Amino acid sequence: MNEPLLPSNPLPPRRRRRLPLPGTLLQWFPAISMALVLIVGLVIYFISPGPVPVSTPNSKTATNPGTPPADATLASGDSITPHLITPHLIKPNPRTAGFALAEQLNAPSGNGTQDVQTLHALLRAYLRLLHSRQGFPVGNDSDLARVLTGKNPMKLVILPPNHPAISSDGRLRDRWGTPYFIHPKGNNAFDIRSAGPDRKMFTEDDCVADPAAAGDGE
Question: What whole-number distance in Å separates Cα of residue 119 and Cα of residue 180?
């Protein structure tokens, strides 16, 4: 059989041509981004709650900002405390206000003898309230000032820290500015005296407390 004749110069294989794309990804990126932003904005718009209505006071319901409503009451039936409390209406804490007897110490209407008697009574009141507790030692006027102003196991204020008898350095001074003489004698007994007008201790004008005459009430 005769073989078919082949061309002497065969044609090269034909390459597959790529179809042209409508555009590159970079060209379509801005349009895609804008579409996503639009979709997200619509979703947030439809799912977000509406604006909260704000009520405006009128002439019938407007009240003083510092005054509670007239019908506002507590659960117990008592009147509600005003939002703005006048300072002088607040009752002081009895544990921090000090004893009423402390007002007589170095009072303008008193004298040196009354002062040492008052101070002795305050000390006796502290020892009575201390009872069997272990208290801090009292050896001078500074120690007595600390325990009477609340630095004691009960944290009880007998003499207010801002009392005129207590100086800025923590000393307990008489009406003439001299520190009181406080000397423990044992068994909760103390020698309390003021230097008097001459401001010299152990002279004729000293004011000495009489333990038998000193009261210990509040």
Answer: 9
- pLDDT (tens digit per residue) in 31-57: 777 888 778 777 777 676 655 555 554
Q: Dihedral angle at the C-alpha atoms of 81, 86, 88, 90, nearest 10 degrees?
A: 30
Distance of CA 65 to the CA centre of its chain: 25
SS3 content of the chain, % helix, strand, coil (to 5): 30, 10, 60
Two tokens at 114? 């009354």
What would the two tokens of residue 66 be? 């510092």
- Residue 7: both structure tokens together: 């061309």
Number of domains in the chain: 1
Is 100 part of a structural domain of the chain? yes
Max CA distance (Å), the chain: 164
What is the rounded distance in angstroms from the CA atom of residue 66 to the CA atom of residue 83? 6
Count CA atoms closer than 13 A to 131's CA, side-chain side: 2
Whether pTM > 0.70 for this model: the answer is no
Question: Within a domain: residue 87?
Answer: no
184 within a domain of the structure (yes/no): yes
Could you give the residue ranges of the DSSP H alpha helices within 4-140? 25-47, 94-97, 112-130
Helix (H) or strand (E) holding 189, with range, is strand 189-194
DSSP string, 107-127: -TT--HHHHHHHHHHHHHHHH
Q: In which domain, by residue range, is 155 found?
A: 94-208
**Residue-wise pLDDT tens digits, 103-122:** 999 999 999 999 999 999 99
